[in-house]
Amino acid sequence: MTRFARPAVMGVLNTTPDSFSDGGAFLAPDAALEHARSMAAEGADLIDVGGESTRPGAEPVSEAEELRRVMPVIEALGADDGIPVSIDTSKAAVAQAALAAGATFVNDVTALRGDARMAGLVAESDADVCLMHMLGEPRTMQDDPRYDDVVAEVAAFLEERLAFAVRQGVPEDRIWLDPGIGFGKTLRHNLELLRRLDEIVAIGRPVVVGASRKRFIGALTGKAEQERGAGTVAANVIAYERGAHMFRVHDVGPTRDALAVVGATVGESISEAPDRLE
Ligand code: HH2
Description:
8-stranded parallel beta sheet
């Protein structure tokens, strides 16, 4: 089991100038901290702090710059608030500094492929790690991605990365898997992954889903990034029903509410729901 009850909500905190939906909004440490606290108050179980955008076409950021962006926020969250922190990075040096400052979760969108030192670092820490599927790299991942069977291929990739992490000494019970919605996927690929998410859940590790405000929701609704909250909730409701454990979102409050209703209706918490006239 994991230390987070299902459903768990991961609040997104991008300390970047160029993230696809909130770029620039939380670059200043004060604004970032305030946003982290408000997400925690709305029911986030942990805050995912990232200093490098992975949006399609994004350019890489140096280690020094990434550290400069994320560390003031992580230090303040650990010291002042005790809010659980996840570090969204593929660089071992950034993860190491974040873990030393109190982060307890490493969210590596390269699934330990981006930095040869990352697996060993995670193994030596007692942090959880999320291994995500991505086809190619952010700069080029949306250039005509192709699969014969996207769900089978993503599952096979995640099984291989899970086995790799375990071989490197990461205890299996600290590993999370993520199909990587929008990372080298067409609209159809994203929808197929959500529809057949139970096949990813069947691998046997808890699954994280990051559908929040992504382009496939814009394609279906015609809405701009900040107006994709309802579409995001719908995607997460489906993912929860298919067995996902953690939901990475920008809009924590509406997600928490939706998951409470779904959990009481079809989830584990049905037996815990108070039986009264409502
Ligand atoms: N998506 C993004 C970033 N990190 N991590 C996981 N585990 N799963 C995801 O789906 C995921 C992720 C992209 O979203 P965002 O952080 O809002 O944008 P950007 O990469 O432009 O900062």
